[in-house]
Amino acid sequence: MKHVLIVDDEKPFLMSVRDGLAQYGDQFRLHLAFNGQEAIRVLQEQPIDLVVTDLKMPVMDGFQLLAHMSGAYPATPVIVMTAFGTPDIEAKIKRFKTFHYLEKPLDLEALAGAIGRALSNSTSSLIRGITLATFLQLIKMENKTCTLKIKSGSEAGQLFINRGELMDAETANARGEQAAYQIVCWPDPEIEMEVVCRCKEKVIQESIEHILLEAFRIEDERRNASGASQEAPAPVPADDWSDVQAQLTPDFGGGETGRAPTTPAPAEPKRAPKATLVEVLARSPEVKAFALLDDKGFLREQKPSDAGLGKLVPSICLMAAEQAGAQLGHHLSHIEMQDREGNPYLLCATPGGQLVARLEAVGKGGVLVDLLSRNNSEA
Asked: Are residues 254 and 349 in the same domain?
């Protein structure tokens, strides 16, 4: 029997959830908690297979609960329930695909469906093993004020956030942006959260989005310097792609799986299969490294395997580009950007996901996008 914990401070809502989900009693047992503190008590007393939590609650809110779970229950999947203050905020968060949320007021059928998918192991849309990057996105979207104490092995540091803006950061040997870059890249972080910002001066001027992008760029270069090859991915023979193709998101074929038919129709001349997205990227001289993420922001494919690009969350930048394009009256197909050392990167949406690529040279982003578009039109 599976066990599901629902956390919300509205008693009438929890009672309606209990009654509405009673018909699923043969599939899972429901546990209720009115705040994060009660939820932790339930987690300590009973193995829980899924947590569904609101963010705004008294005593201990959903952010504090998620922070606690990052250290104590890192493998427990979570669905976030949230109510949006304005249609604009709702529209923005719907473009983020790195976590799953349910909108309040909640439809019980939607809740039952989400729970069913989670318990049947369809959990790619959940916050599983809560990442610091995802946690920071939630804080940014909710304009949260807090101090985060982050631990990873023997390392410890703090992030100071006021109304969703990163004010300062500190570790044992750094402060400001350099400290933030270190903390974001720490593996398996444990998060402790205070609901006050213990910093009054804004030392960090860059946005959370920039800090995340730059931090993983620095980590990527560190790995390369330690011995990882910086060569562009070598072309891969077509015969070696069968296993990879079966796991890919749809390529530019408009819903096809990327796998060519094994036997062509007798009346049609035999022709070479269209290149998959991975093949095009791997063989492109414009690309030094790339990562393909699915529509939830989870890494699907990365070459080289240690490139570190899969940690990036391009949704924020792509959303900003979409908004800028709307204001300019144009559709922006991609973003090409440089870090402070001049290393160029490309971010763009793909069918079923997103692409992050480290480019060979500045100005090659448009060339690559054109190449991918041509591959789409050739069938």
From this structure: yes
Bridge-based pairing of strands 155-162 and 165-171 is antiparallel
Give the torsion through C-alpha atoms of 330, 210, 201, 150, to 10 deg: 140
Q: What angle do CA 346, 352, 354 make, to 5 degrees?
A: 15
Final residue of a structural domain among 74, 104, 130: 130
Q: CA distances (Å), 262 to each of 223, 236, 244, 272, 283, in order?
A: 40, 20, 16, 11, 23
Q: Is residue 267 part of a domain?
A: no
Question: Mean pLDDT in each 10-residue stretch from start to end of the chain (379 residues)?
Answer: 94 92 92 95 94 89 86 82 60 49 80 84 45 79 88 92 94 94 86 88 90 80 64 38 31 33 46 70 89 73 78 68 70 78 85 84 83 68
pLDDT tens-digit profile of 112-158? 888 888 787 543 434 444 568 778 877 887 888 999 999 988 999 99
- 369 residue type, one letter: V
Instruction: List beta partners, residue 350.
Output: 353
CATH of the domain at 42: 3.40.50.2300
Antiparallel, parallel or unpaired: β 78-82 and 50-54: parallel
Q: Is 272 helix (H, G, I), strand (E, B) or coil?
A: coil
178 and 105 inside one domain: no
Full residue range of the structural domain in which residue 191 is found: 135-225
On whether residue 265 sits in a domain, the answer given is: no
Give domain status of residue 232, yes or no: no
How far apart, in whole angstroms, are the C-alpha atoms of residue 41 and residue 293?
A: 36
Please list the residues that pair with 261 across neighbouring strands.
none
Is 320 a member of any domain? yes
pLDDT tens, residue by residue, 32-70: 999 999 999 999 999 999 999 998 888 888 888 988 887
Strands lying side by side in the sheet with 28-33: 28-33, 2-7, 50-54, 78-82, 101-103
Q: Structural domain tally of the chain?
A: 3
Rounded to two decimals, what is the model's pTM? 0.50
Predicted pLDDT of residue 88: 53
CA distance 232 to 282: 8
